[in-house]
Amino acid sequence: MHLHKYERIWLIFGISSLVLFLVVLGVGAFYKGTQPPSHLATVDPTKVEEHEAFREENLGLRKVGENDYIVSVIASAFNYNFGKDDEGNTIRKIEIPVGSNVLFQATTTDVIHGFQLAGTNVNMMVEPGYINSLKTTFKKTGTYTLICNEYCGTGHHLMAFEVEVID
Ligand code: CUA
User: Fold this and answer.
1) Buried-most residue among 23, 87, 115, 153 (CB within 10 A)?
2) What does pTM read for this prediction?
3) Which reaction(s) does the protein catalyse, per the Swiss-Prot or TrEMBL entry (predicted)?
């Protein structure tokens, strides 16, 4: 069968574009360890504080191994609850040593909130009735800002928290 020169060029162009598109999509989806929220666990949104992970004493940063930490957070309009310190004051900032592996787990007592730790792969939705979690490893020191990226009401822009990664 004879193919006209231009027909061949356009065929090659078309197929190449499709392959390029699929490669960009495939690589882009997993670049930087981005992953869809998986292993969803459920929780009664009206009894969140009765769940092991979100009991008062388990909120915030917890060391669970040499280099491993768990951060448990209850989101609600319009704040992130990281628990209280030893003096009973609300925790406004956490400090994590550089190189740590951290599992973030969060839920919400009201509406859907966002949970994005800018500059890391931690970017998930927090939904009532579910425990959403993501792992990250902090390779660089600095201040990371946790923000809500799902519109949740009039105080949406106030939902933020600071994570300090220290030496
Ligand atoms: Cu919470 Cu927007």
Assistant:
1) 115
2) 0.78
3) 4 Fe(II)-[cytochrome c] + O2 + 8 H(+)(in) = 4 Fe(III)-[cytochrome c] + 2 H2O + 4 H(+)(out)
